[in-house]
Amino acid sequence: MPLAASVLIDGPSELVFDYAIPDHLKILPGCRVRIPLRNREATGTVLRVQEVAQTEFDLRYLTSLVDPEPLITPALLKLAEWITSYYGTPLEQVIRSIIPASIRGEKTSAKIRKAAILAKTPTESDLAQLAKRAKRQHQIITLLSIAAKPIPITELGGASTSSSIKTLTEKGWVKVINLEVRRDPDANETFLPTDPLTLNEEQGEAYKTISKSLHSENPKPILLHGITGSGKTEVYLQATRTALKLGKNVIILVPEISLAPQTVQRFKARFHDLTDQIAILHSNLSQGERFDEWHRIRAGKARIVIGARSAIFAPVKDPGLIIVDEEHEPAYKQENPPKYHARDLAVVRCNLEKCTVVLGSATPSLETFQNTQLKKYQMVKMNERADGASLPLTRVVDMRIEAKKHKGRDAIISDILRSSVEKRIEANEQVIIFLNRRGFARSLQCPPCGHVIECNHCAIPLTYHRGDERLVCHVCGFQSIVPRLCPNCQDPAIRFQGYGTEKAETILRKVFPSAKIARLDTDTTRRKNTLRDTLRDFRAKKINILLGTQMIAKGLDFPNVTLVGVLNADLSLYAPDFRAGERTFQLLTQVAGRSGRGKMAGEVIIQTSTPHSPSIQFARHHDFDGFVAQELNIRQQFQYPPFTHLALLLARSSHERRAEFTLQTLHRKLAEDLPDNVILGDPIPSPLTKSHSQFRFQLLMRGPNARVLSHHLNKILRATPTPEDVIVTADLDAYDLG
Length: 738
Ligand code: ADP
Ligand code: ZN
Known about the structure:
Blueprint: E1 3-9, E2 16-20, E3 32-37, E4 40-51, E5 64-65, H1 74-87, H2 91-98, H3 101-104, E6 111-118, H4 124-133, H5 135-147, E7 151-152, H6 161-170, E8 174-181, H7 201-214, E9 222-226, H8 232-245, E10 249-253, H9 261-270, E11 278-281, H10 287-298, E12 304-307, E13 319-325, H11 342-353, E14 356-361, H12 366-373, E15 378-382, E16 393-398, H13 399-405, H14 415-426, E17 430-434, E18 463-465, E19 470-472, E20 479-481, H15 501-511, E21 517-520, H16 530-539, E22 545-548, E23 561-566, H17 570-573, H18 580-592, E24 603-608, H19 614-620, H20 624-637, E25 645-653, H21 656-672, E26 679-680, E27 684-691, E28 694-703, H22 706-719, E29 727-732
Parallel strand pairs: 9-14, 9-15, 10-12, 10-13, 11-12, 13-14, 16-24, 17-22, 17-23, 21-22, 23-24
Antiparallel strand pairs: 1-2, 1-4, 3-4, 3-5, 6-7, 6-8, 18-19, 19-20, 25-28, 25-29, 26-28, 27-28
Helix pairs in contact: 1-2, 1-11, 4-5, 7-8, 18-19
Adenosine-5'-diphosphate binds next to helix 8.
């Protein structure tokens, strides 16, 4: 029977048409093809190939293949369909993000260089003659015979190269060919080889579990819950080697590649025998580099892929192992459509391809932890630091007392932190100072008593809206006026307070005039290599104090750091987000994990105005189990994830009223036939009320089933026309609550 292909046409209209396949073309699902569409030619992606009966064979023929081979594997096509059905994102848009623009388009191509190669092997006497008569030709021939492979002509260097090559070609010594050269993002880096370490007992157990899973037909996801410094990376490295030996390929996801230079280095150093087989994928690659890396993966030349979240779409043919390092990191959530979560997709992809997924973290997300409780995932724990170091001693400083001691000015550095920093610097040890300053709308906290004003219905802080002088709950919409006195201690000093890393740097320089201080945040790292260079200087001990935001909180391994100071632990704690407690616990645990990783004991000093808050106390005692037990309780009580799924609907427009009105209309329609057990929040202004000159309004839906939420939302969205200048977006399993 003749064959037909169902083709998803490129473009926003989401058209799928069947085309007959001409006999001379080999068409597989995932192939990119040219097809006739009305009276023009279009391009599209083949979704399916099926036989059709002769009688209904009145289809048009597809014209030709864009690429000789499918750009998307059958498993990735299934993953794309899963994303469409789960998140409600149109398939065409999903496929567009799976196949990067530089691959899909025809603008980027392989880099071809003219290269010279020996056409016949010269004898001793040939060489002797050339050496006498033509020095330059002799040089080139010698080079080519030593290299024993083609050399790009531009790399042969020296004078009169092209005329010499021309003569040599005419005489039949040399052939000029087109050579495909790789654009290697790490071409200028060298990596010192490392050997596998002998695993300790806990690492051995973790490795065994993964290895067993690699041999299994139907593996279950594995949570590797190992404290900071427990040697998770070493386990990843050895598991990767095992997967390769089994003939499988490996994908390693890291939250943000620029923040994980050490992870990339450790893989390149360990697999020094295979550096050609490692591909790096991230957003800072040039179009050409991405093109080369992607095709090396597709062709099976690169068998280890390290990348940020979109690397979950790497066209690896037979992945045996997918590692998601720091699985709790919000950076895995893609905030532009399709708004997928890469960790969740890793689990789905592994399920589709029957491969092993390892989620690693010192502070697993509650979602993942809950899945181990439900026995959907297995869990292995590593409770000791690998190199015998112990966890740092953590002290909490009550900044309310400091505020009283230093009346009249903002206390930023407590006396305890100041004297500890001085001691460490004197002893030639290093210090990390961490300050996580958020950009916009903050909660209202009373400096004398530390009281934070919370919503009566939601157990999250109310957010201060300066414009209309109101406090608003960003979950349920509850609003209240801004009190003139603190409701707890009646002090009029209650006000919005805050300072960022920039101000902190000025103060650190004043307090520690002789110390060498460097600051790392998004402002200071705009220039390409600042981050790498600063970290290198810090490692070389040219810097005493490293001050920074989240950027320095995670993954760094500096054995000479013995003190970590956290300037204002309350900042992330009172964000208008039910995950604020979880984030704070994670951040404090991660940042504390930077201290005492070497032979010397480490210390952590946390400054806060709410020293008794559970997130801070549990982090102080390195008590993950205590923290999750309490936090899960709260989540269950208020029906937050992981006990529900959550969808955020956002309307934005430069016309404030129209955005608000649109969301109110949608809210009314959503409420009309609300599925059972879905909780619908009121429409409210977003915490970020205005951004890019657009006013933002949002509402939250919660319910036990994600697909029910997304189905209902998309049904209403499709049926409700919105004004042209209002943009409405939905975010399922949202992390950024506005
Ligand atoms: P994690 O990723 O869990 O934070 P790392 O993999 O960075 O931990 O390991 C912390 C330190 O312990 C590193 O310096 C690493 O080289 C060292 N290490 C890891 N495993 C071992 C081992 N089996 N024996 C000795 N040192 C180890
Ligand atoms: Zn509320």
